[in-house]
Amino acid sequence: MLLELTRPELVRTGNLIDGRWSGAAEDGRYLVINPANGERFAEVPDSTAVDAHAATDAAARALPAWRATLPRERAAILRRWHALILANLEDLARIMSTEQGKPLAEARGEVHYGASYVEWFAEEGPRVYGDIIPQQQRGKRMSAVKEPIGIVAAVTPWNFPLAMIARKIAPALAVGCTVVAKPAEDTPLTALALAQLALEAGVPCGVLNMISASRDQGVAAVGDWLADARVRKITFTGSTAVGKHLARASADTLKKLSLELGGNAPFIVFEDADLDAAIEGLMASKFRNGGQTCVCPNRVYVQAGVYDAFARKLGERVAALKVGPATDDSAQIGPMINARAVEKIARHVDDALSHGARVLTGGRKLDALGPNYYAPTVLLDAKEGMVVCCEETFGPVVPLFSFEREEDVIRAANDTPYGLAAYFYTRDVRRIHRVSAQLEAGVIGANEGAVASAAAPFGGVKESGYGREGSRYGLDDYLSVKYVCEGGLD
Predict the structure, then answer these.
(1) Start and end of every Aldehyde dehydrogenase domain (predicted)?
(2) What is the C-alpha end-to-end distance of the chain, expressed in Å?
């Protein structure tokens, strides 16, 4: 069975506040549902602003001592956390697959990926340097010192329930911040298990606090963090609409924000591309997590001279994908997260068909498998104006657009308010540099579909947000710069 765990105690069904597991203050609870079959998985606290405030109180008490620890001491704790994550990889993957739906092989990969951020920031935390500013006046010495910003509130999405929260918590802890966190309402259990392992690694009481909440109650809980001046930073991954709300609502306390928001990624195949390599890249980038990622290609542009050949090869690959629950070891695509997701995918496909698109493969729900399955789909003859061109589908649907000239596809690729990721394939080295410079996105894949790495800065431009996660740049959003001027030295 999927939930035959080596350590069943990793399935935590309480809030972590000040090092203790407890229910919500008002005793509310809600169900976590397995999207593969619609069955109940667990009950977790339905936290309110009262719980969020208690978490902030704990983080505030813990902050002075934690920020005073040596960077190497914090790094040692993070390294132990990293080791525990890998030691419990199989249990974490099974919890994740059950609440999120992704195949077990993919869930195992996410555990490795999330753990890589903990390891990376354990190494980078001790390397936060300031600057001695060249002397401007005799008798004065000026320096710039980087310090932890304070309490960080992390709000994460359901599509990568371990990697996204690890990518936010690890840098915050590495530089001496304390954290209050709320994982997505659909997938809290993976994050709560991760928090349990952090406690076992030696993260002190109150340094990491985590609460679960349903959609309605979660708004009130996060709202308390937005209003609380003690919370100095919000880091959020999710929709652009919610990101804009957080920016507006946090303005009264002038918090620092990192916002990784929606995307509408183009994937461009030029006539001189290696078509087999382009298809491999598209399969890797588009069908990861069933297309439920913010960086997966949403619009695939293929130059007219290779359009038919590319479509034929792609259709064969997509039609061969195995769809099924995580209990099926051969499954490559799992269920969508919930019925709303399936309804959105179906609406996008129906709109495209009503405007002249044709189904090459897929294009239907797979009700025989369960309530939340949709067939991997390739649409031919996609055009501007279709919903699939304007909105993020967040599902296993590939609309193929045809283009003639490079300048035309650059214009089309950039014709969106979003700018998170963009991909293109070409054998022309000059074109690689030319197109990379012109595409308006924070992440570019040139002849590569798998771009994620703990060593790389991740984030968007335009309405895809601001701030960067991962890499050495990922520490900057958790630090403030203090200028120190020493006088009377002559």
Answers:
(1) 26-484
(2) 75
In angstroms, rounded to a whole number, what is the distance separating the alpha carbons of residues 153 and 233? 6
Chain-centroid distance, C-alpha 415: 24
- CA neighbor of 178 nearest in space, from 67, 53, 82, 68: 67
pTM above the 0.85 mark?
yes
Q: If you average pLDDT over residues 267-291, what whole number do you get?
A: 98
Can you read off the two tokens belonging to residue 356?
Answer: 């002249």
Q: How many Cβ atoms sit within 10 Å of the Cβ of residue 110?
A: 25
Which tokens in the block code for residue 129? 């340097």
In whole angstroms, give the CA distance from residue 309 to residue 96: 38
Segment 205-226 shows an average pLDDT of 96
Hey, what are 78's tokens? 């993070």
Contact 210, 20 (CB under 8 A): no
Structural domains in the chain, sorted by start: 8-261+464-483 (3.40.605.10), 265-453 (3.40.309.10)
Look at residues 486, 319, 299 and name the one whose alpha carbon lies nearest to residue 402: 299
Q: What are phi and psi of 214, to 5 degrees?
A: -70, 175
Calpha distance 483→37 (Å, rounded): 57
Per the CB < 8 A criterion, the answer to whether 18 and 205 are in contact is yes
**Rounded Cα gap, residues 439 and 435, in angstroms:** 6
Nearest Cα neighbor of 172 from 82, 235, 261 is 235
Picking from 113, 97, 117, the residue whose alpha carbon sits closest to that of residue 105 is: 97
Which listed residue (260, 392, 406, 463) is catalytic?
A: 260
Per the DSSP assignment, residues forming a β-bridge with 29 are: 45
Would you call 260 a catalytic residue per the annotation? Answer: yes
Q: For residue 1, name the pLDDT band (cuts at 50, 70, 90).
A: very low
CA 208 – CA 220 distance, rounded (Å): 20
Question: What beta strand segments (E) does 435-478 contain?
Answer: 443-446, 461-462, 465-466
**Whether 51 contacts 201, CB under 8 Å:** no
Residue with tokens 């068909």: 353
